[in-house]
Specification:
The protein is of the alpha/beta class and 647 residues long. β9 and β10 form a beta hairpin. α2 packs parallel to α14, α6 runs antiparallel to α8 and α7 crosses α14. It is elongated and about 110 Å long.
């Protein structure tokens, strides 16, 4: 039935052909579909609401929202106080544009913003200009979208089908706010996998949240799966979206399904959490890949520095060029705590959050915090070319605040990069898709948890390491030569020194020496003779300019007789978490640099997840004999052709 309704509504777009481009159809058909649904939903109470408005005007008193809400019935939290509905607006065809505008502005504020974001006033004007307004409105008025004819769940399917059709018709924008259905199906199946028995029980209450809701695809698939597991489950959907049109589509989808009209919040999730203080049973998100957060930097940094772990970003801040890990931290903050029954979440990220940033960086600190709190259950590598707007490698992070006993302290990596089928016709960058058996196979790997070619499980600490700084002593010689003196004078500290007679005195130079004390004594004598007075920093700058590295020279010592480090020889080593840094140093560094030491003040703790390394399969190079045989075969063919030409 829902397909018939969707096909009929889709056919209305044929009226637009010629006057509008294909990618514009959705901007008109979708808001009119919402308008017709709300028109049918409010039909039984329409007259009562309008009568209350008229009575208030007659009594010269303000119209109270609570009164209109009561007149509209307790099922819905919105109403319309206009005298028109679609059919009565059509009754005065000469003034149809004005009638429709009056009707739309008559909706309560919590629904009117859907039409504002759709810019329905502009759409009405455009249709009127092309003499199509009456025809389009008439066709919509003919569709029975009342809740008795089309229940909320079915209406949701109709709307989603229309969204999908218009997204496919508009290839250039399809992927920006629209996550492929197959990816969502996998994420939802993984989230619900451990709860199959619990979900089937009576009186189940669940909530689903998406901080980057787009057009609401993730929320809709989660709802479908939970309802199929338990039709009587009490389910709350919530989300937030920054793009006005996507927000309108998503909020409309939630509204036509009977969800709260306040479930979807408009705005930037990082700047303003529309569901502050709320936590949810399930979280799903596909945040933008590799997008900078310069616009949000001031607010996010303030939340980090002022609120710390009482806010969302206490674990750390990633580099400004990529904000995806901020969405990871935000999603974690929205997961229901273990004490409240536990929360589960799945988020799609690119490869960067796995390994970007060395020990002590924001990204490394975030990864370490997530693993230390034992929130990460699994990471699933998806095939490339899975999304409409990018073909890069992507990964699903599966999070939980209440792990099963066998997963505590463990992280599972699943390589699903080869589990896909080619699409017959690509959509944007999307050329691969997960078939239902691919999704089932990945879910089975997740549930099984055993180690084999495509799935490996690790202790959380296997991804931790310490970065040690290895210092080598500086070895120098000193000499006063024209070349070294000319180079030394370029130092900023020495730029204003009046050298005077010293220039001539320095011409014969001072012979090369590896004894700093002896060389300094000779240099000071010349400076005094030339009447040049240098401050301590200036003398150090001059000595540095007259020096040269010399691997055969003795080690330079500081005032406390300790070796001075050579910055050019400084190196770092990443030491596995379980290994003692001194034992590692003795084994891996000392044999090759006997004079090296660890600067322990610079030791940093880090965390990275080298996913690809764990699934790398070594392919040995071809043997020389095999290569020679191939070359000989090619040369043989060339010789045969040359002989044929000569003949």
């Amino acid at each position: 039935m829902s397909n018939n309704h969707a096909t009929f509504i889709w056919s209305i777009a044929d009226l637009l052909r010629g006057s509008f481009k294909a990618h514009q159809y959705g901007d008109i058909i979708l808001p009119f579909t919402v308008l017709r649904r709300l028109d049918a939903v409010l039909a039984p109470t329409k007259q009562a609401v309008f009568a209350a408005v008229e009575q208030a005007k007659a009594d010269d008193i303000p119209v109270r929202a609570s009164l209109l809400k009561n007149k509209a019935g307790h099922t819905y939290s919105f109403w319309n106080e206009s005298m028109f509905d679609l059919k009565t607006a059509l009754g005065d065809s000469e003034n149809l544009a004005a009638n429709l505008s009056n009707y739309v502005t008559g909706f309560s504020e919590n629904v009117k913003d859907i039409f504002d974001k759709y810019k329905i006033a502009d759409r009405i004007a455009e249709l009127d200009e092309h003499n199509l307004l009456f025809l389009v409105t008439q066709r919509f008025a003919e569709v029975d979208l009342s809740p008795t004819a089309v229940p909320n769940e079915e209406m949701g399917h109709i709307f989603e089908e229309l969204i999908r059709k218009f997204a496919e018709a508009s290839n250039e924008t399809a992927g920006e706010h629209f996550t492929p259905r197959d990816v969502i199906e996998l994420m939802v199946d993984i989230l619900l996998a451990p709860e199959s028995e619990t979900l089937a029980k009576a009186n189940v209450v669940r909530s689903v949240y998406d901080p980057t809701a787009g057009t609401g695809g993730m929320l809709s698939v989660a709802e479908d799966h939970i309802r199929s597991a338990n039709p009587s489950a009490t389910l709350t959907l919530a989300g937030q979206e920054i793009n006005p049109q996507s927000y309108a589509i998503c909020k409309a989808d939630m509204t036509v399904k009977g969800q709260s009209v306040d479930a979807i919040f408009f705005g930037d999730t990082l700047l303003n959490d529309g569901h502050a203080g709320a936590t949810f049973s399930y979280g799903l998100s596909n945040p933008p890949f590799g997008v900078d957060w310069k616009k949000q930097q001031k607010a996010v940094t303030e939340e980090y520095s002022q609120r710390g772990f009482a806010g969302r970003f206490g674990a750390g801040l990633p580099r400004v060029s990529d904000g995806s890990m901020l969405f990871l931290l935000h999603l974690i903050s929205k997961m229901r705590s273990a004490q409240d029954g536990g929360g589960r979440a799945a988020i799609v990220l690119n490869g960067s959050p796995l390994f970007t940033g060395g020990a002590g960086s924001g990204e490394s600190n975030i990864r370490k915090w997530v693993l230390e709190r034992d929130l990460l259950e699994a990471i699933i590598a998806l095939p490339t070319d899975m999304f409409y707007n990018t073909g890069i490698a992507t990964y699903v992070w599966v999070l939980s605040t209440k792990k099963s006993a066998e997963r505590v302290g463990r992280v599972q990596l699943i390589d699903g990069s080869k589990m896909f089928r080619k699409m017959r016709k690509g959509l944007g960058s999307k050329r691969n898709e997960l078939a239902s058996d691919d999704i089932a196979a990945i879910v089975e790997l997740y549930e099984d948890g055993a180690d084999h070619a495509r799935s490996k499980t690790f202790d959380a600490e296997d991804f931790f390491y310490r970065t040690i700084t290895v210092e080598r002593p500086v070895r120098l010689n000193w000499a006063l030569t024209p070349a070294r003196f000319a180079a030394a004078r370029q130092a900023k500290t020495l730029s204003k020194v009046e050298w005077g007679a010293f220039v001539d005195l320095a011409a014969p130079g001072i012979a090369q020496s590896t004894d700093l004390r002896d060389f300094r004594t000779k240099l000071n004598a010349l400076l005094n003779q030339g009447a040049v007075s240098l401050t301590a920093p200036q003398l150090r700058a001059l000595l540095a300019g007259l020096s040269q590295r010399d691997k055969n020279a003795p080690i330079v010592l500081d005032s406390k007789k300790r070796p001075e480090p050579d910055p050019t020889l400084r190196d770092t080593e990443n030491v596995p978490w379980a290994e003692d840094i001194h034992a590692y140093f003795e084994r891996e560094v000392k044999p090759f640099a006997p004079d090296a030491w660890i600067d322990e003040s610079k030791t940093r703790e880090g965390c990275e997840i080298p996913f690809t390394r764990h699934f790398y399969e070594y392919v040995p190079p071809r043997s020389l004999a095999e290569i020679d045989a191939d070359l000989e075969a090619v040369l043989g063919r060339i010789r045969a052709r040359l002989e044929a030409v000569k003949a």
